[in-house]
Amino acid sequence: MKTDALIARLAENPAAPEQPQTIFAKGVMTGGFVALALTMMALGPRHDILTAVSTWQYWAKFVYPLTLAIAGFLALERLARPGAAPGWRGWAIALPPVLIVLLAANQWMTAPESIHLHLFYGHSWRLCPFLIVLVSAPVFAGTVWALRKLAPTRPVLAGAAAGLFAGAAGAWIYAFSCNESALVFVSVWYTAGIAAMTVLGAATGRWLLRW
Amino acid sequence: MRNPQETAESELKALMLLALNGDGVAYHRLLKALTPHLRGYFSRRLNGAAEAEDLVQETLIAIHTKRASFDPALPFTAWLYAIARYKMIDHFRKAGIRKTLPLEEAETVVADYDSEAAEAARDVGELLQRLPKAKRELLEKVKLEGLSTAEAAAATGLSESAVKVTIHRSLKALTKLIGGQP
Fold first, then answer.
1. Best of A1, A2, A10 to mutate (most B CBs within 10 Å, chain B)
2. pTM of structure
3. By CA distance, what is B31's nearest residue in A?
4. Which of A99, A118, A164, B127 fits a disulfide with A198 by CB distance 3.0 to 4.6 angstroms?
């Protein structure tokens, strides 16, 4: 086809069909709801939820993945647009892990040595990162769906950001079911699950995010 | 005074914003206006005109399907060239061209290559070979190396007027060789 004819045809539909906010909202909400439903059906909410809410460690476990997910999303939103750089948003991602590691180090040092192993391993360290990856999967799928409607020009980096965001969002959802409350545990095994999702996203981004 | 790039940026961006609000005429003008930019970008980096035109079209389609990804807070041309660049890398990848250089550098390596100018230089070189040696050397000195007639006269030992006459006759002979009217 002649270029002029192509231009004439494209010009028939000037307005963008959907705003990026709408696209992201659809993908992320759908993935999030599926992840939450699966978690509640397969794992159920934590049984001691009523007593646990009174401890601040309980809240830290939610705040850590949630702030990480927000930072990841801000970077992701930039990476979905050609010619835009994440800038400070990339650095903001480092903040929540640094904070949780500091809090965990404090817990480790102030706790008696006899419970160190328990703080580190809890009772679910083998399952925790694995379950976080599973819970994150629907969020990751929704995020990739949204990214494919947009235009990431750096697919590996965008894939990593999508994995990080989905991993952190998945960890946050998983926290409603997980009954570990040690900050040391959260800082190690939650981070491991989120990191695994980030690596997975980077590895698959090249293929999943091609346009 | 604003430079041409800034003018292009503000004009294209204004058209883009109108287009995203549903203005089909502005959108048509925008696509028309940025096509020469894309043609220039690709023809400087690819060898064939047909190949470059294919990429121009592919990029136009990408601009259309991905137009929601444009952020009005950012420059339009940065968005445009990021898409063009992505499409070119994608093209190299599909064609199985493996560069040993990172693509960022490969771009600057191929940027200076202008096939049309290179061909023209080769043609002129061939034609010059068909002139007698003395005439050819004089023509090269004055027209290619940029010597003045006085300098050329000093270099060859001819008088200045003889140099002028020889140059004139050589150019006439060259024109004849090309097939034009003297």
1. A10
2. 0.75
3. A7
4. A164
Min Cα distance B17 → chain A (Å) is 10
pLDDT tens for residues A100-145? Answer: 999 999 999 999 999 999 999 998 898 999 999 999 999 999 999 9
Judging contacts by C-beta atoms under 8 Å, the chain B residues touching residue A83 are 74-75, 78-82
Check A10 against B64: CB less than 8 A apart. Answer: yes
Please answer yes or no on whether B61 and A6 come within 8 Å at the CB atom: yes
CA A16 to mean position of chain CA atoms: 28
Give the pair of three-digit tokens for residue A108.
């480790």
The CA distance from A162 to A146, in Å, is: 10
Q: What is the DSSP code string of A160-206?
A: HHHHHHHHHHHHHHHHTT-----HHHIIIIIHHHHHHHHHHHHHHHH
Q: What CA–CA distance (Å, rounded) separates A147 from B51? A: 28
Span B13-28, pLDDT tens digits: 999 999 999 999 999 9
- Residues of chain B within CATH 1.10.10.10 domain(s) are 131-182
Res. B125 pLDDT band, cuts 50 70 90: low
Hey, what CATH class is B131-182 in?
A: mainly alpha
| Closest C-alpha among A159, A177, A169 to residue A194 | A169
- Chain B residues in contact with A18 by the CB 8 A cut-off are 68
Residue range(s) in chain B whose domain bears CATH number 1.10.1740.10: 4-129
Which whole number is the average pLDDT over A68-95? Answer: 95
The topology under which CATH files domain B4-129 is Rna Polymerase Sigma Factor; Chain: A (1.10.1740)
- Could B20 and A15 be called an inter-chain contact, meaning their C-beta atoms sit closer than 8 Å? yes
Looking at the predicted structure, is the pLDDT value of residue B88 above 60?
A: yes
